[in-house]
Design a protein that fits this description.
Elements lengths: L26 E2 L12 E2 L5 E4 L2 E4 L7 E2 L9 E5 L10 E5 L3 E4 L4 E2 L6 E2 L10 E8 L2 E8 L3 E6 L4 E4 L9 E2 L6 E7 L2 E6 L4 E4 L7 E2 L1 E4 L10 E10 L4 E9 L3 E6 L8 E7 L10 E4 L2 E6 L2 E3 L1
Parallel strand pairs: 1-2, 5-9, 15-19
Antiparallel strand pairs: 3-4, 6-7, 7-8, 8-10, 11-12, 12-13, 13-14, 16-17, 17-18, 18-20, 21-22, 22-23, 23-24, 25-26, 26-27
Length: 300
């Protein structure tokens, strides 16, 4: 009687796949061939942005306030964090060509403009803003190219145009109507005068009084006007310090050390970065570093 054939046994196949981790792409690379893209490049991304643990869907947006007059656009956002612990003094303002609006409360805007600008054409509403605290209160200061300097006082919750003079809340030395840029540096309020190479500063701890000036023009090798001044935090060899950086419209960058231009100001560096874009919002400080917007891109 024939015997049954033994059961055929197959050898297990070798696993030819290997697990690998591919990090989420940094963004779209639209210049190199697809065959040469690195792991951090994508050829197409639709409604996804990079997040902490990979890509996530774009969250989109929703309207905060509607009905801000008949102006075409919002030009500057002015956030203000007040002194009250519960946030009752916090405010959110914005500017259009017509003036400054209080947009703290979401929804349809029913209130009229908080403060109307004297000039509503050109660069009205494209401004800079800084918060400042003195022994007399907390303030928010705003300046733009054509309307000059304005100040918000937390104690009265009102905006007012800063006047020229020697009275309370007034500034002398420079006409506030000619101030196109405002910031704070080393406990002082600093301004930039429109169509000039001069920066102005107030006494320590004051938002008004007699302003003094420093002229950057004699160190601008390529000419131009002073766009603005910014703070740059760096370790210069003797500890961390805040330097004052002035930038011209032609692309000169001057770095000053010290605190009082009449006593201890010294030039620590001079660079040329090429022509900068129009307007005065061409730099921002991030974690102590200063990023400059130029025709060549963003430079640290």
């Amino acid at each position: 009687m024939p015997m049954a054939s033994p059961r055929l046994r197959r050898r297990p196949q070798q696993n030819r796949t290997q697990a690998a981790h591919f990090p989420p792409p940094d963004g779209v690379n639209a210049s190199d061939p697809v065959s040469s893209l690195s792991l951090g490049d994508a050829c197409q991304i639709i409604n996804l942005v990079r997040a902490e643990y990979g890509l996530r869907t774009r969250l989109g947006y929703r309207r905060h306030v509607t009905g801000i007059g008949t102006d075409a656009d919002v030009r500057t956002i002015l956030p203000y964090v007040g002194s009250a612990g519960a946030g009752t003094n916090d405010r959110l303002f914005c500017t259009t060509t017509s003036g400054i609006w209080n947009v703290t409360t979401a929804g349809a805007q029913t209130d009229p403009v908080t403060l109307a600008f004297g000039t509503t054409t050109g660069n009205a509403g494209f401004g800079t803003v800084t918060a400042y605290t003195t022994v007399g209160g907390k303030f928010l200061m705003y300046a733009d190219e054509v309307n000059g300097l304005y100040c918000y006082t937390e104690g009265t919750a009102t905006w007012a145009k800063v006047a020229s003079g020697t009275g309370a809340g007034q500034i002398s030395g420079i006409d506030p109507a000619n101030i196109a840029f405002v910031t704070s540096w080393k406990n002082r309020i600093w301004f930039v005068e429109r169509n000039s190479t001069r920066a102005w500063y107030l006494p320590i701890g004051q938002i008004a009084g007699v302003a003094a000036s420093i002229d950057f023009g004699n160190r601008f090798k390529y000419g131009g006007q002073l766009v603005g001044v910014w703070s740059w935090t760096v370790d210069g060899g003797s500890g961390v310090d805040d330097y004052l950086v002035g930038i011209s419209t032609a692309g000169d960058v001057l770095v000053y050390a010290g605190s009082d231009p009449t006593v201890d100001f010294t030039v620590r560096g001079s660079w040329f970065i090429g022509k900068v874009p129009s307007g005065r919002r061409i730099a921002t400080d991030v974690g102590g570093d200063l990023l400059l917007l130029t025709a060549q891109g963003i430079l640290p």
